[in-house]
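Summary of Year 1 activities. Much of the first year was spent building the evaluation harness for sequence design. The harness presents a backbone, in tokenized form, and records the residue chosen at every position. We chose the following record to illustrate the format because it has been used consistently in internal testing since the harness was completed.
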């Protein structure tokens, strides 16, 4: 059975966000949120643009960027391995305005220290930037490790959430 993937664009302080969704038994579920042309951004056809299934996603993203929402409550359907799904679900438990490290996340998942890189790879494959908050995972030394949305956007998001203090010029 083939399900049609539809997409829309949401303007944001980070630039346009590309959202995709697939139809399922309960309606559409968001399958990706990325920056157009960025890593992990799906190739889409203009004729598959359909803004209607994304009304609630637009509303929640607007509220997040306005500082009125700290969690997303959307149906999500991102394909990934069982391990990736486990790592991505753990992201939902990192509270707004806080950060954790790759090592702390691995320990929470029961992943041995020798496999921390696997956690990092799973985070790098997260197709739901922002909705599954991989931007809240930082290096043990406080460094801003890679982020598919770009490290500058990671810093912006963490500052927006209050996890980082704004830089003074």
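For this record, the design step produced the sequence shown next.
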């Amino acid at each position: 059975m083939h399900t049609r993937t539809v997409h829309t664009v949401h303007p944001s302080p980070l630039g346009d966000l590309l959202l995709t969704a697939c139809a399922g038994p309960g309606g559409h579920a968001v399958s990706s949120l990325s920056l157009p042309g960025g890593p992990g951004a799906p190739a889409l056809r203009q004729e598959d643009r359909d803004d209607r299934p994304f009304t609630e996603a637009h509303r929640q993203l607007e509220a997040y960027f306005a500082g009125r929402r700290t969690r997303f409550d959307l149906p999500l359907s991102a394909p990934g391995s069982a391990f990736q799904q486990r790592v991505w679900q753990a992201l939902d438990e990192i509270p707004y305005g806080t950060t954790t490290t790759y090592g702390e996340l691995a320990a929470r998942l029961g992943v041995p220290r020798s496999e921390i890189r696997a956690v990092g790879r799973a985070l790098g494959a997260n197709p739901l930037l922002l909705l599954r908050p991989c931007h809240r995972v930082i290096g043990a030394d406080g460094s801003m490790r890679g982020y598919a949305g770009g490290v500058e956007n990671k810093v912006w998001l963490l500052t927006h959430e209050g996890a980082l203090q704004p830089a003074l010029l």
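The chain has a mean pLDDT of 91. Quantitative recovery figures across the full test set are reported in Table 2.
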